[in-house]
Fold this sequence. Notes:
globular, five-stranded mixed beta sheet, 483 residues, 6% strand, 5 strands
Amino acid sequence: MKGTRAAPAAVAGAFTAAQLALVGTGMGLGWDETVYVSQVSPHAPAAFFSAPRARGVSFLVAPVTSWSSSTELLRIYLALLAGAGLYLALRCWRGLLPVPVLALAGGLFGSLWVTLFYGPQAMPNYWVAVGALVAVGCFLRAQGDRGDRGAAWGLAAGGALMALMRPTDAVWAALPLCAALVCVRRWRQPRLLGALALGLAAGAAEWIVEAYVRYGGLGARLAEGSRIQGGLGWHLAVGDQLRSLGGRTLCRPCTSAMPDVAVTAWWFALPVLALAGLVVAVRAGRASGTLLALACAASAAFPYLFLIGYAAPRFLLPAYALLAIPVADALARVVTVSKGYRRTPAVVLVAAGLAVHLAVQTTVLEHTVHHSSAARRDYARAAADLHRLGVRPPCLLTGHQAIQIAFSAGCASAHTRGHNANTTAGRITREARSMPVAALEPSGDRPPSYARTWRPDRLGRLGVYEGYRAYLAPVRAAESHRS
């Protein structure tokens, strides 16, 4: 019995170990990670923080990045936190489902390549998923025992975690909870509605205050966020999400071929197994909890499947976390309901399916880690090349991929166009009079007008770009010859 109770903890520990073993600690920071980390790191000036972002990730990593620039230490810290978060989220479901089902749900969610890949990264989506699991589990516990104050506080904490990481995602994930508290008579509890509202408001408070300070209001910030994301509206992004399952961390634009059917099969099996889990729950007399989990999963996934014109697999992590509950329930039922001569084939079938699933997920993860690590090494090498060219702190980089390279080099970054526009050409040329400034462009692309007389230097390959060039401001270009 004790071994069974410890199963979720064992799953969480295995999840942490798998992150460290399969993703590793040597992968450099990605674009979004750089933005979040730079807000609290003394290593380089903070990168431009656009309207859709929230500062929850920056708060999460601050205990490490505020005093250390070690990416390895950051990865270990986040992997440990991710494992602890998964364990606490599963604990919130204790008493609602059998412990083996919870352990299987944690294993299913934690074994997805996208979960393993983003667990040790400074990104918000995994933590929205943890918050969603906590919120739904605590909601159901509080409904089952109206005297359980801890569950009410857990509901507030889950809402706060989601809103702290991504306020808009928190609203979508919490909509079914709010609807249930208002529309379902036997679930109407003003204290739970207050707890959820308090949690969401507490988590989003900084984001809302910043909206009025920097953007002129909440509506203005939401409108700016929509513009940056390509204009939120009716977009059928289901195909884009399918294309991203092959290991594309960002599919924008998403014009590549569909991955092999072996890579996407689990995605089509997911809703079928989730509905099977609902049938199991109906027969077990706990349909309402499963229905709520399914509703929250569907609500969390809806904007990323139908309202945004591009895809990233991490966007659906909250939905995957919630769907893992009924899927695990269905698979466990297949094994336990089979008796006699049917039991062995059922166990073999489920075990074989899970083994194939794990093999596919591990293969995609390995490919994604290799590709991402290689690209991020290129950025670190480019930063070293810029140092050799005389571009050292205090310095400023602009142009393509400037944010990642600037952080590696200890420089500030600035852009005159695009989603990260935060300066003007005149301001950049003025900065060039007092510090090293370089404009970065792929070979074949023309530099910006203010940099066309600047000296070009080859930086080599950067990710998918060959022949990358840095255009050095002329004053500093002359100084670099003397250094």
